[in-house]
Amino acid sequence: MKKQLACASAVAALLLTSFTDSSAKPFPPPSAIPAPAKAEQEPSAATTSTASLLETAVLVATSQAPGSVPFVALNRSASPLPNSEFQPAVRLHQHQPDGLTVLYAGHSFGRPFAERMAWATLLAGIDGHEQRIVFRGGEKGTPQAMWEDPAVRARIQEQLNDGAVDVVVLICCSKEFVETGFQYDQALFDIVAYALARNPETRFRFAMPWRDYPEEYASAAEHRALTDAAYPDYQLLAESVSAASGGAEVVAFYHGAAVYEIRSKYERGLIPELRDLVGSKSSSVFTDKKGHASDMTRDTGTLIWLNSIYGVNPMNLPAVNAYEVDIRAIATAALVAAP
């Protein structure tokens, strides 16, 4: 036990400086690739409440669809599907599920995937997905920082108050979670309680991203070591939040694993179209030193989100022809590799 606590404390100290962003992309049309990254800017104190809301709570509504589908997780022990060792733990109905209203509240290591969910659901043949986003850059976009800021808390509450949100996605890692050795984050309990009071059927996803500043790590294996160590505790925290919330559906997922998988394949020369670790959004793993997602990284990670929210097996999707490699297979490999 002492060794485990010492290990957790060491990892916590190293994680404490993570997720402090300095740039982000403008919100794209649902079917378009986002423009190159621009500097993230916090709302000016001089802006009106409406302007501030437009900058930090982005609402994309393709349509509003009632109803929802049960969470479907990938199950390694199930019989294999063609081209994949995964199948859904619960098979989806023959008809495609209705789209859900999903709120993402967090920083820029989650925002690109939330932005691309309209594209991913279209790829999966799911109609009616509605995406809401409350955004804050860097550490200010963690659950604790957002909930402790009265103005940002009000924006999150505003998105939840209509009772229409089916799924809330929050992202690691709050300062309290890191400082307690990956044991606790009161903000997660508070946000879940507020959402359930507005819609008792709300489900929750806790996203684990990747470490920032990728050039500081010699390899993908070194890059992922810390988040791999933290993720099992993050899963346990999700279970604790569920138990404290009357059994509400609270599930952790690890889209950062897709980022590490792409980096690993890039390092082994298995993705020839990626020429650099950091560089162009179309030919690199990351777009800047901070480690923001490139096009391939973003789209592959979005398939992880699609799996977590809708239970869609990546290999059951149509091929994504924008890339020479099969990003469905990369997403599946990331799901296998996740702790």
Keyword list:
alpha/beta, globular, Rossmann fold, six-stranded mixed sheet, 339 residues, 12 strands, disordered N terminus, single chain
* DSSP, total strands: 12
Task: Summarize the main sheet.
Answer: 6 strands, mixed
CATH superfamily: SGNH hydrolase
Q: Structurally, how many domains make up the residues?
A: 1
Distance between the termini: 20 Å
Instruction: Determine the CATH topology.
Output: Rossmann fold
> Which stretches are poorly predicted, pLDDT < 50 over at least 5 residues?
1-95
CATH class reads Alpha Beta
* CA radius of gyration: 19 Å
CATH architecture annotation: 3-Layer(aba) Sandwich
Fraction of residues in H or I helices: 25-40%
DSSP summary: helix tally: 12
Question: What's the short story on this structure?
Answer:
The protein has 339 residues and is of the alpha/beta class.
Please provide a written account of the structure.
The protein has 339 residues and is an alpha/beta fold. It has one domain: Rossmann fold (3-Layer(aba) Sandwich). 39% of the residues lie in helices and 13% in strands. The protein contains twelve helices and twelve strands. α9 (220-244) packs antiparallel against α10 (256-267). The longest helix is centred in the last third of the chain and has 25 residues, at 220-244. Residues 1-95 have low confidence and may be disordered.
